[in-house]
Structure formats: structure tokens, C-alpha cells
Structure of Aminotransferase:
Amino acid sequence: MIAEEYKKMLGEKSVIRQLSEYAAERAEEIGYENVFDYSLGNPSVPVPQVFTDVLVELATRDDPGSVHGYSPSLGIASVREKIAASLKERFGLDYEKEHIFMTSGAAGAIAHALRAVTVSGDEVITFAPYFPEYNPYVNKTGAVLKIVPPDTEGFQINFAAFEKMFSSKVMAVIVNTPNNPTGIAYSSATIKKLARFLEEKEREYGHDIHLISDEPYREIVFENVDAPYVAGYYHNAITCYSFSKSLSLPGERIGYVAVNPACRDAKLIIEMCGQISRGIGHNCPPSIIQLAVAEVADLTADLSVYETNMNILYRELTGLGFSCVKPGGTFYMFPKALEEDAVAFCKRALKYDLILVPADSFGCPGYFRMAYCIPTEKVERSLAAFRKLAADYK
Amino acid sequence: MIAEEYKKMLGEKSVIRQLSEYAAERAEEIGYENVFDYSLGNPSVPVPQVFTDVLVELATRDDPGSVHGYSPSLGIASVREKIAASLKERFGLDYEKEHIFMTSGAAGAIAHALRAVTVSGDEVITFAPYFPEYNPYVNKTGAVLKIVPPDTEGFQINFAAFEKMFSSKVMAVIVNTPNNPTGIAYSSATIKKLARFLEEKEREYGHDIHLISDEPYREIVFENVDAPYVAGYYHNAITCYSFSKSLSLPGERIGYVAVNPACRDAKLIIEMCGQISRGIGHNCPPSIIQLAVAEVADLTADLSVYETNMNILYRELTGLGFSCVKPGGTFYMFPKALEEDAVAFCKRALKYDLILVPADSFGCPGYFRMAYCIPTEKVERSLAAFRKLAADYK
């Protein structure tokens, strides 16, 4: 019988996809270089040459069976060891292979983590603005996702609202720092306060509360920004990482779950992830991609262009009267629209071939997201369009 | 809250894994070349050189963004087109891009297909001996997997038992031909009979019944064997393919769902697959692997060694008194054990460093599986061990 739940999901076409389809059509008319497409979080800098070299070396090995052969369901042992060693070295936590599970990007990591630590009837909390795909990940476990309204002052955490929403049903909290869509990194103070609160609640309710840290932008942090490693502050932390942004390979779908070794069920959660994969027929990421990222786990692409772009746009937009919290990382910024209805605002922006994303679907109406992972010269050419757009509101 | 359902699954360690762990330990003692490991379905022949060449060409392109960038959730359009064209050319069905969904191997394909066409309370039927991982794929949709007892005469279909088991609750039937673990291909007569039966039942019950055809071994068919393309015989057929065996890259987790264009909901099922992926955070297989297999969709590794090995083993084992239906493809064979309890038999085989898999977990007690995807010279060296084993039963 056709599964109606999935059939229904088809009706809800995402705003971002609609915008990017519009951008593609417009590009056919006026050339893609003249469409200022700030809609897509697709990294604009190339993968590091060393990644390419490693990939070629692996592909051309004498013993292809060892490269293209089955991976164990938790990931290739040597890969998990290298990632654990890299995390241990960088962040000082006692990670070992047994704390690492290889996944299909951060998406796969979060979906696995949620299935491991929540069951039907549980609640999961996250903070607006938030990545809307958390909804299907949470819903499919039978749990319910609750959204804390945004702290629009600084896009840290609205603790008053969070504490009010919290109950004994909450088994997991999802944070995303540096954040998509705001570009803001949670400060040490924010993370400490969150960790202390969760510890208190664990004692009060007598059960574990897992902190799922979604951090594909961990390596894109700007100068002098306080952006600490979340798991360093909380024992029951599950880090969900993707190499998509740090290595500029979002299409290769590679990441991991790393459970804080101090977490009581750390090794159990990792082993459960392997069982969770069985039900979805996913098993594990491709062997050659696992082997390749393990060799460059400590490297990144040249990510400096994102800070350059941010500085140009932040200066220009705030100069034009936009209200915007300065990003601490990622390749996103999150200004307030110049009218209350951000959808209408972004529609108007299309007049000037500016593709901006209204933040309604991120749970933060009135704002818009800009993904400035585009060439700097294009950012500069787009400034005139922003000036015209702002002039419309004078 | 820790999800007990996954925790419990951990207790059920697979026999195959235990055997392969034993084989690894024994290999440390006496050298791997002296362990006759027939337990694992890991292809023994190298990937075709042209696959490696394509992979290197992709990895070293000037425009890495186009290779490593996001894939649409249904798969890269050009890849889906090439696969559709290849299937159309080879099997004469009117496949187009819209009938193809790229997956993480056949496992991902089957799990997606089942989620698309069954819901909680439905029944799914398959035929013993069968691949035990069908259980988690089916269970996670809320449906129930029913197993038709084997036709041990020829390992075709036990139609008498199948027809008796059938009811209006059955929404999908899974076939696997050429078959793991028997090595047998369903004949045209078998598939025709199955298709006619399902068509009758569709009319009788007034609803669609989907035939999920799991065919990772489609390209490994021996000389003069009648092994037709399943979807050519039935309109509501969903083909689940993997390149693992044909191209010798099981670790790269790449395959597809192809829905028969004659299926009423063909395009809908494919679009639903994209939504199903959202819930599990999987999205799509890696871009570079998709792009690479699309270039070699019509090629295979040199698979001739499997038939060579089969002929040597079939001659020797039947000569020793084993009862065995001659395989028509794959790299498996499925003899009857020399005592009633195949687990005891396989345990005895370990005395001679023969690693054989008892077929109890495939739903066919009393038989054992041999995966002869090992070098021919090793097959030959193993014959003396089989002779000693058989002598124990004289």
C-alpha cells in the first residue's frame, strides 16, 4: 500500500528549492554571473589538493579489494581510530575508536543519534532559528520536536523560554553552533550555562539528557570569535560532524557521530548506531571516501574567503540600515528584513536579481538568510543591488 | 531515553560475523592462505580498470565543485538518465530518469522500496532460503515478513505453500534472483507463473501488489542459464540493484531503485523515495561514486572466475556425495550438510580449516552456504579438506 505519510511530504516543496529553481531560470535569461544567488549553502572554495591526491592514490592502489571492499557497519576501524586521535589531540577528550561511528554527513549522524537516545513519546528541544530538516529526523523516531523562540538580540539562547519549556519528557537537546542560518557561534558562557542547566535537570529527573551537537561549521570560525567545542562542556554530548563544509565536499556525504567518552552509554550508543543503520539499509559511508577523509581529518580547504565576504557584506548592509548580528563563523548571515514580512521582502529582492531566503521556515519570521559562499567579486558586484533594494524602503 | 529496540538487536550477533571473526583468528595462527574461508560474499576480482580511470579523471577535474557538490536527493540527473538509458537498451522497458532513484547499494534500495509501498499492518512475502537482513528492512515499516518454505528440489518457488500463505494483506513480494544463498536463478517459467499469480491477486483484491526484485547478482549468470530480467514480466516491479558485485566495489555502497515504467505509481514511488531519505538523514549516495558508476553502467569486472570456481567445487562436492543444485549464477552454492544439523556440520568443517555457513539463519536448516569468491588456486587447495570432511561421515 502506498505510504501516505511520504506521499504527503511531497506537497511541501521547500522555499529554498523554489528559490534556487527561480535562480536557475533567471540565469538562463541573464547569465548566472548576473544572478546574485545567496540561497544555497554549497561551498565555493575547492577541496584541498591533498584530498584529491589521497583519493587518486587510493583509487590506483595495487590492491583495489582493500579500498573498495566492505566496511564494517560502524565504519572502517583505522578510519575511526584516526578520527578519534584527531579529536583527542585537538579537544583533549579521551576519544577512542569505540566512540566514533561513520555516517552519511551530519544529517545521517543526527538521525542516528536521535534514534539511539529517544523513543516514541519523548520530547526533543532545539532553538530557533533552526535547520528545518530536524523535523523529519525527530518525527521518524516518534518523538516530538519543540522549538525555543529565538534570542534576536544576539542569537545565543533564549534561556527564559527554554527553561519554561523544559520538562521530564525532554530526552535530547539539539544545538547547532556555529549556526545555520544565523552565522552565530555560541559563546563559552552560553554553552556553560546550557550544560549546567542540563546537569541539574538530569539530577532532578533522574535520567540522562543527551546534548546533540550539530557542527558541520565547526571549522569555519572567524578571527577572535569565542566558539568552543561543545562536548568539552557536557558529559552526555553527542557530536555530529560533517566534512562537507570544512573540505568542500558536501556531495560526498561523509561525517561521523562522536560520543563524549564521559557519556555513560558512549560505547553502547555507537554500537546501537550500527543496528539503526540495518533497518534503513544504509550500512556505512563508502569505503574510499572514509579512507580519504581519515587522511586529511586535521586539514581544511582555504576557508578565508568566507570571512572576507562576510566583512564586505556586513559593512555594506549595516551601512544601508539593515539590522544584523555580526556572524562569528559559517558562510551565512541573518539580517532583519526591511519590512515585517520577510517573504514579501525577498520577493522584492528578486527585482534586483538578489536571491535571499526568508527565515520563516527556520522558525524566525521577519529575517532572511544569506549564504555568501560565492566568489568575492560577485559579492562586490551585488552591493549595488542591495543599495537599490534598500532605497525602495526609504 | 536509550532505544531498547536497537539495544536488543545487539545481542543477536550474526553467525556469519562470528565465523569470519574465527577465520581471522585462525589466519593469525596458520596464515590466511591456509584458511579456506567460504563465509564472506566479498568479490575477489578487481574493479575494472576503466572504473579506476573514470574515478581518477573525476577526482582531478579542474572544477571540483561540480564533482564534489550536492547531489539532488533523487540522485544526479545525468546519472539517472544514463542508468535509465542502459536499462532501456538492455531490457527493452521504457525507463527514463524519472523511474530511477540512486541508493546506498541494494540494501538501501530495498529498504526505500519497502517504505514506499508498505505500511504498518501489511504483509510482505519472501521465499526461503532468504537474506536475513530483509527482516529489519520490513520490520521498520511496521509490516510483517512471511517466509515461504523452500523448494529444495530446485530452489525455484514452492508455489503450493506460497499460494496458501497469500492473503489480501500482502502488499509486496521480495524475490532475489540469482539467489543468495542458493546461487540459483529463477527460470522464465517461474517468473511468468509468479507474475500471473500476482496479477490475478491484484484483480481479486483490487489493490496493487509490488514485486521487489533484489538483484545484485544480475550480472553474474553462468553459461546457458535461463535468468531473465524480472521486471520484464510484471508491471508493478521495483528493481533493486547494486553495483557491488558486478563492479567489485561492495564497500562503495552504490545502487539504485528502478520502477517499471508500466507501474501505475512509478514516478510517485521514485519521488517518495527522496522523502523517505529525509527521515533517515541519508539523502543520496556520494556524488563522485554516482558519477563514476554512470560511466560504466554497462560494464562489469571480469566475473569468469566465479563460474570456474563453481565448476570445480560442484564436480568435487557432488563426487563426494554432497547433494547440491547446480548454481546458475552468483558466487554461492548451497549443498546439503552431511548430517541433519548443519551447525554441527559446519563446526566439524572448522577442524579442516573450512569456513562454511550453516543456512539456519537463511531459513533453510540442514544446508550450508559457500561463498566461492576466492582465488581458484585456493579453491583447488581446499578440495583435500572437503575430502577429509566427507570421510568423517563415511
